[in-house]
């Protein structure tokens, strides 16, 4: 697994980050840290800036202020060579898998290996088969994305994200549009990857079942506050957060069940 050298005890440090689109401030003074091998969620309601923050974390957008560090090394202000080195320490699973439809699964998963390594074709094929097996898609190398279900596409996208053995994997709404059983299986796979490979996992999501099932800690951002309003273990925040917005967000599942049972009125 690739890791950047550094003295920090954290895999990721976000310090005073401000995100803008033109003159519109989306998030300001965002700060938090993620421990190695942690499953960490960035949560909040629709439109609060979760995916915007993710784009800043992985370098698709540059923060107006603040910095992002990986293993103690400054990613935000790194030169081109340093940035490329740090980019290899993480993989990304985008929404819906983001697979190239004209490529087979093997070609999709092999793409990072072709771009960032000097491995020959045989070695790339060996790694591709290994990564597809890790996500439960062994033997499907020659399939095209159109031939897969939604859950299988996410798994294939995850295999590609794991191709370079990253120390960190980012997920952007991995369960969006999936049925509950498929979402549960994907959560189990994410936990398995963390447990077996020691990978640090960062997930952008508002799906409460996933948050309560696999998150070690969460950070919640709010559109009104334009920043972080809570950080901690989800169960503790649900019961004891001093912020009503946090309690209401994390208690939605309980309220929905009670309403179905007739305990609450719609």
| Strands, count | 10
Largest sheet: 6 strands, mixed
Distance linking N and C termini:
50 Å
Strand content: 15-25%
Low-confidence stretches: 255-261
Q: Which geometry do the CA atoms define?
A: globular
Q: Work out the oligomeric state of the chains in this entry.
A: single chain
Q: Classify the secondary structure makeup into a structural class.
A: alpha/beta
Side-by-side strand order of the widest sheet:
6-7-8-3-9-10
State the share of residues found in helices, binned by percent.
Answer: 25-40%
The H/E string reads: EEEHEEHEHHHEHEHEEHHH
Number of helices: 10
Cα-atom Rg, whole angstroms? Answer: 19 Å
Mean pLDDT: 89
Written description of the protein model:
It is built from ten helices and ten strands. With 266 residues, the protein is α/β, with parallel strands linked by helices. A hairpin with a 2-residue loop joins strand 4 and strand 5. It is globular, with a radius of gyration of 19 Å. The strands form two sheets. The protein has a six-stranded mixed sheet, with helices on both faces. The model is unreliable at 255-261 (pLDDT under 50). The chain has helices at residues 50-57, 80-87, 105-116, 121-134, 150-161, 180-197, 208-214, 234-240, 244-250, 252-260; strands at 12-21, 24-34, 39-43, 65-70, 73-74, 90-93, 168-172, 200-204, 217-222, 227-232. The chain has a domain at 99-165.
């Amino acid at each position: 697994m690739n890791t950047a050298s550094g003295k920090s005890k954290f895999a990721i440090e976000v310090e005073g980050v401000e995100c803008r689109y033109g003159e519109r401030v989306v998030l300001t003074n965002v700060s938090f840290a993620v421990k190695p091998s942690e499953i960490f969620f960035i949560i909040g309601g629709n439109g609060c800036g979760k995916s915007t923050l993710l784009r800043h974390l992985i370098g698709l957008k540059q923060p107006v202020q603040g910095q992002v560090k990986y293993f103690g090394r400054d990613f935000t202000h790194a030169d081109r060579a340093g940035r490329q080195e740090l980019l290899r320490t993480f993989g990304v699973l985008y929404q819906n898998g983001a697979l190239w439809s004209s490529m087979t699964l093997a070609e999709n998963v092999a793409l990072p290996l072709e771009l960032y390594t000097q491995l020959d074709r045989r070695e790339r094929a060996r790694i591709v088969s290994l990564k597809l097996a890790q996500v439960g898609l062994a033997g499907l190398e020659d399939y095209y994305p159109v031939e897969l279900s939604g859950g299988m596409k996410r798994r294939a996208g995850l295999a590609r994200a794991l191709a370079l053995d990253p120390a960190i994997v980012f997920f952007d709404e991995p369960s969006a549009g999936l049925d509950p059983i498929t979402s549960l299986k994907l959560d189990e796979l994410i936990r398995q990857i963390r447990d077996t490979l020691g990978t640090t996992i960062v997930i952008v999501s508002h799906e409460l079942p996933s948050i309560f099932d696999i998150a070690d800690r969460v950070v919640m951002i709010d559109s009104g506050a334009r920043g972080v309003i809570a950080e901690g273990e989800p169960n503790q925040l649900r019961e004891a957060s001093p912020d009503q917005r946090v309690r209401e967000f994390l208690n939605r599942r309980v309220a929905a069940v009670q309403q179905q049972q007739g305990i609450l009125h719609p």
